[in-house]
Design brief:
Blueprint: E1 2-10, H1 13-28, E2 35-40, H2 45-51, H3 57-65, E3 68-73, H4 92-103, E4 107-113, H5 126-129, E5 133-139, E6 147-152, E7 157-160, H6 165-180, E8 185-190, H7 196-212, E9 217-222, H8 223-232, E10 239-242, H9 244-254, E11 267-269, E12 274-276, H10 295-308, H11 312-328, H12 340-350
Parallel strand pairs: 1-2, 1-3, 3-12, 5-10, 8-9, 8-10
Antiparallel strand pairs: 4-5, 4-11, 6-7, 11-12
Helix pairs in contact: 1-10, 1-12, 6-7, 8-9, 10-11, 11-12
The structure holds nicotinamide-adenine-dinucleotide, 3-isopropylmalic acid and manganese (II) ion (MN).
Length: 359
């Protein structure tokens, strides 16, 4: 049976890491009795240029109809750029948010793992990074990213951080259920010492824990302290559940533990179709140089195989091949010598030999 995958390459390094990942998936397919049908769709800045909007209807429809959505990264340079001068609803980032909302993927899993033997790639002491295996569970379709009212006027800027009870309850359930399959520990991160919305978040998390998941260990950290504790002692953490904005910030911070933002994957779940994308952005500063690290996208594809397509054995093989290639000689952002193409070839070379059994 063939898996239909909606592919959104995006902008700048997005197409580079997506090309690498599709090449690896095509090499993996025959070894695990897999067949993919990839449909490449306009999304992001390239879609603005061609269709006047970042998330055209054709892309929305194709994503809804697919078995999974695999995205690169979209967006323009951080400074002044035509895409950044558009009204808010026409901007690339509104397309990204619009896609998440369209698919209803409220649970964003951002695993941060230091593979055994690769702790030397971390700028932290190897003894601190070693054994890191935590999951940032970011609420993805609510909070200050979507709250109304919101505006930027001559003399006032306003955003609204709001959470409904059902939104906190459902992400809390995902956190506790996920922790049960891991180390049984949830840390909820908020700013309840200052923000009413965070006090509400904490109260709801405590309620769900007491009534449904008393077997799971729960503790709470304020977000400022959490930022410090996560890099000071990453192995103290299992599942870190937090709101949309705090999860965005903490996940880029946590990328320092394995050594580069280029290695972090994500899966966004909870709707009918899952969305799989690296945590990093379109990195215009390195685009076109052949040095984009494809690992975040490759590991996102592994999450797609595992969570979206129920192909756990193929996911394991892909992750193992990435680990082997990193151990041999990593990409330049990690201090190695390999560019995108050489690293991709090394991953393919490290895939297991063709096996008769389906995975
Ligand atoms: P960024 O993640 O693109 O880059 C931050 C830094 O990390 C840069 O120095 C970059 O070179 C490096 N980096 C990122 N990915 C890398 C990789 N795979 N390999 C090697 N180095 C890598 O963040 P930014 O510069 O703040 O944002 C650039 C654009 O990307 C903006 O338009 C932003 O809105 C967008 N963005 C999109 C997504 C997404 O598509 N989901 C995510 C984050 C940012
Ligand atoms: C991410 C990105 C996006 C976010 C932006 C580009 C809309 O930073 O996926 O982490 O803030 O969610
Ligand atoms: Mn981000």
């Amino acid at each position: 049976m063939s898996h239909s995958i909606a592919v959104l390459p995006g902008d700048f390094i997005g197409p580079e890491v997506i090309d690498a990942t599709l090449e690896v998936l095509q090499a993996l397919a025959p070894r695990y009795g897999l067949a993919f049908e990839f449909t490449s769709l306009p999304f992001g800045g390239n879609a603005i240029d061609r269709f006047g909007e970042p998330l055209p209807q054709v892309t929305k429809d194709a994503c809804s109809a697919a078995d999974a959505v695999l995205m690169g990264s979209a967006g323009g340079p951080v400074g002044d750029h035509p895409w950044n001068r558009l009204p808010r609803e026409k901007r690339v980032e509104s397309g990204i948010l619009g896609l998440r909302k369209h698919l209803g993927v409220f649970a964003n899993l951002r695993p941060v793992k230091v593979f055994d033997g690769l702790e030397h790639l971390s700028p932290l002491k190897a003894s601190v990074a070693k054994g890191t295996d935590l999951l940032i569970l970011r609420e993805l379709t609510g909070g200050i990213y979507f709250g109304k009212p919101s505006h930027a006027r001559d003399d006032e800027g306003l955003s609204t951080m709001v959470y409904q009870r059902y939104e906190v309850e459902r992400i809390a359930r995902v956190a506790f259920e996920t922790a049960r399959k891991r180390k049984g520990r949830v840390t909820s991160v908020d700013k309840s010492n200052v923000l009413d919305v965070s006090q509400f978040w904490r109260d709801v998390v405590v309620g769900v824990h007491a009534s449904e998941f008393p077997d799971v260990e729960l503790d709470h950290l304020y977000v400022d302290n959490a930022a410090m504790q996560i890099v000071r002692a990453p192995t103290d953490f299992d599942v870190v559940v937090t709101g949309n904005l705090f999860g965005d910030i903490l996940s880029d911070l946590a990328a320092v533990i394995p050594g580069s933002l280029g290695v972090l994957p994500s899966a966004s779940l909870g709707g009918s179709v899952g969305l799989y994308e690296p945590v990093h952005g379109s990195a215009p500063d390195i685009a076109g140089q052949g040095v984009a690290n494809p690992v975040g996208t490759l590991l996102s594809a592994a999450m797609m195989l595992r969570h979206g397509l129920d192909r756990g054995a193929a996911a394991d093989a892909l992750e193992a091949a990435v680990q082997t290639a990193l151990a041999e000689d990593p990409t330049v952002d990690l201090g190695g010598s390999r560019g995108t193409a050489a690293f991709t070839a090394a991953v393919i070379a490290a895939l297991p030999a063709p096996a008769p059994a389906a995975g």
